Amino acid sequence: MGLLTEKKKVSIEISECLLEEMERYCKNNNQKQNDFLNQAIKFYLKEMKKEEVRNHLRDGYKKMAGLNQQLADEGLSSECYSYLCYEQRLVECEKIESKKG
Hints:
Layout: H1 16-28, H2 33-100
């Protein structure tokens, strides 16, 4: 990106209504139209970059949701198996204790 002092002249077409609104805003706020347009473009580009990041994050979270579900399912089945083994050992211990008593 070039220095802010490097300036180029451009020609744009905007609706008359939008031009009038900009002129009114600049007049009421003692702001040059060039400064207003530069700030507006910077603001718009900044917001567009934020939107790109939000979209990228949203897509990443969607992809991770499937992986998280898979990991949770695997963890749950592993926990269930461990719990089943634990209960079987308890039953075996109870049988041994009941034979002793």
